[in-house]
Write a structure and sequence with these properties.
Blueprint lengths: L1 E4 L2 E3 L10 H5 L3 E3 L2 E5 L5 E3 L2 H15 L7 H15 L4 E8 L16 E8 L11 E9 L18 H11 L3 E5 L5 E4 L3 E6 L2 E4 L10 H10 L2 H8 L4 E4 L4 H5 L3 E6 L3 E8 L2 E2 L5 H14 L4
Parallel strand pairs: 8-9, 8-15, 12-13
Antiparallel strand pairs: 1-2, 1-7, 3-6, 4-5, 4-6, 6-7, 9-10, 11-12, 11-14, 14-15, 15-16
């Protein structure tokens, strides 16, 4: 593991005091997940680096704190980490956090966040198999305005601890979460798409979902009518729509998407098999790989 911390790259985890403010109170902190891919020419490139760094910056603004590095400095630090790790597929996790102790809760004087960036080789994910993963719809609510999901902050993901007992009980790999109206908005750490015929639906960005960079990339590929028609003779219609449980149960195909998991098919939801036409999922798997590997 390589870590960029205080303008230097170290070989171990950055030191974290167990009496730190973020550990006790869930913030202030913001983070990002990025992937670097080996390209066709043998180089290694971070996918959508500028977009990820800007989202990190935006997250810090939303929670009212400052990252004391420019976007260019953060991008350079990420690229230096990739060079240190050699040409292999990598996962990067920048995290900016308030570096004060828990007793400072009523007397914080600084608005500046400390920044560490972790970089590790990424393993092949078993859940990326063609078989797909099993999921349930949980009763856990992740909704605006209780959660400001436009900010990628640890506090917004604390509800994973509420979901985990359900996953352990049912033996499934992930769960969908709801908004205040009972619509399905996200998986625990991923956006999702629902395919029905040539219509591909995804929840609207109304505050209850993270505006995913992978989600946007998938939508761009599916919306490239020239590519879809010339290569696959299929032209889908991608729409943002409030998603119900019935939309999930009657779908031809459902798939998750996110930086770490990439694109993952869902094979079962609440004990109901999702086993219709999965051709759009297979197209996205192929074309997403082409995009991140520099083949497109």
């Amino acid at each position: 593991m390589k870590v960029w911390s205080d303008r230097r790259i170290i070989d171990n985890k950055a030191p974290l005091d167990s009496f730190s403010y973020p550990l006790h109170y869930g913030g202030p902190a913001v983070w990002e997940g990025m992937r670097a891919y080996v390209q066709e020419d043998g180089s290694c490139k971070i996918f959508r680096l500028k977009e990820h760094v800007q989202r990190l910056r935006d997250s810090s603004k939303i929670i009212g704190y400052n990252i004391p590095y420019s976007n260019a400095e953060i991008e350079q630090a990420c690229e230096a980490l990739v060079q240190q790790n050699g040409n292999k597929d990598l996962y990067l996790r920048p995290i900016a956090y308030l570096n004060v102790d828990a007793e400072s809760i009523h007397g914080i004087q600084t608005k500046d966040l400390k920044l560490d960036i972790y970089c590790v080789p990424i393993p092949k994910l078993h859940r990326n198999s063609e078989k797909g993963i099993r999921m349930v719809v949980s009763n856990v609510i992740r909704a605006y305005p209780q959660f400001t999901m436009q900010a990628k902050t640890p506090a917004n993901y604390a509800d994973i601890t509420q979901v985990q007992p359900l996953l352990d009980q049912t033996g499934v790999q992930d769960a969908f979460l709801l908004d205040n109206q009972g619509y399905v908005v996200e998986a625990t750490v991923a956006n999702f798409f629902v395919v029905k015929g040539d219509v591909i639906m995804t929840p609207p960005n109304k505050g209850s979902i993270l505006p995913g960079i992978t989600r946007r990339t998938v939508a761009e590929v599916l919306g490239d009518s020239a590519l879809m028609f010339s290569k696959y003779k299929k032209v889908p219609r991608v729409v943002e729509k409030d998603i119900t449980k019935a939309d999930l149960y009657t779908a031809d195909c459902v798939f998750l998407c996110g930086t770490y998991a990439e694109v993952v098919k869902v094979s079962e939801i609440d004990g109901r098999a999702i086993d219709g036409d999965d051709s759009y999922f297979r197209i996205i798997q192929t074309e997403y790989s082409n995009v991140v590997r520099g083949r497109k």
